Amino acid sequence: MELGSSVQGPVARAHAARIDEPRGAPARGIQAATQRKRFATAIGFGISLNLAWAGQAQARSRSLRKAHGQGRHGRREVLSIGVVTPLVAPLAAKAEAEPPTVSKKVAEGVYIFDQAYGIPGLGVGANIPIRMTVLSLEGGGYLVYNPCHPTAEAMQMLKEFGLTDVRYIVCGTVAIEHKYYAPQWAQLFPKAEVWISPRTFSWPVDFGPYVPVGGFSRSTPLQKIPKDASLAPWSSKGIDHLQLTVDYAPRTVFEETVLFHKPSGSFVCTDMLIGLSDEPPEILTLSPYKEGLLWFSRDEPLEEVDVSSPKTLKDGYQKSVLLLNNINPRSLLSVAAGDLAVPKQLGLASKAPQKELGYFGWYPCNWQASDSPCAKLDDRLLPSKGSKTFDCRPGWRGEWTRLAAGVEGTGFQVPSFVAELQVSRDPETLDSFAKEISRRWPGIKKVISSHFSSPLPASSENVSKAISAVCRGPPGPAARAADLSAILNFRDYLEENDLIYKPAKGRGSWTA
Questions:
Q1: Do 126 and 261 reside in the same domain of the chain?
Q2: CA distance 337 to 81
Q3: What Pfam families does the record point to (predicted)?
Q4: Does residue 14 fall inside a structural domain?
């Protein structure tokens, strides 16, 4: 397998085939897909107060053995995450088959497996790439970090890469979307040791790892990842780790274990860092996720887009990522935020030229593409209604450029909701954690995150700088900080009402 070339299994190839159909065919395919999605009413911004990357996974419809023995169970990955703002609320869609997987060897001894999940209420809407990383161990065997959905396709890819000698299954965070499938992996690889984040399943009730529903079997031995990396079995096999814990709200914690794969110089993390490319990750160009990009590609309901154009997918990707990272972009007017009136948007839906894109033409958005001449790019919006207008908005293309640039010239960043609402609650601990990364791992060559683009070229100095930038407040320049108006206003509200802690020393730790 050539380094850097991706692998698509039969499921992924089938989903990808739709992209290459003639111009008229994608519309028919999309229309058929949307007929499988039921429409419900528009809702306001649903902001979760469980401010972690948390979610609720759908219940398994059949046993693991049966699923792998009899084939595809046909459900789409749908999870909720903290601080996300859906625009519409159709019932969750189901894919025709198991969700696709795209896998790739990105360095010697380093493999990534990309899948995706959607936000409840957005059957055609924003989707987030999610990644499993497999690392070789010195002396033989492999470590699986943040196990993915073990579909038949994903397991076949694992076999084809020769990665079935799994020694360790590591859940790098308390966030459910990164640990939900670990119990299934423990069943598939009963000889592998399972290591979990120490605060796993500790909120809202501390069940421990053996939660009543959806957790590990009590027959599965579990071990907690130690803060002292020398106590982990992989420490003598070419992999080191650091673990950051921050209590950011009552009974609510951010906890993540980051790895350093010494042979390849790979810094492997979950939500600690992300990097954004202008083009959508390959997994999002496959059904059922590409339909979401097409839906978001328009600036307003009456716009007609070329569904066969890669540029259309690119535009949809960038706008959906702005929604996920900036929460309520300054360039966006929406029904959900109260900027647009429902009756008027329903009237536009009836005139929409491409109702096949989803929801019978309903598109509760109006995006400003370029900066308005009167837009005040550096000014933070107030939380009051009417602070946005049609006439004086920054453009989403400028917002995207500022977001994708990362922070302080590094090309990557801590995601805004993690930065502003979670790890910033203890700036001193976060800063010392960032400094320890550069001190301890001077050989970092690349970053592999569990979301969006990877691998990213990196250095230990840039990784440390991007993480410690959170301690210095919202990212610059002023226009970039202003782009985060919605989440900064939300942060202030949560602090004022004691729903998250105010920044203070002692809320976090990374040393044993």
A1: yes
A2: 19
A3: DUF4336 (PF14234)
A4: no
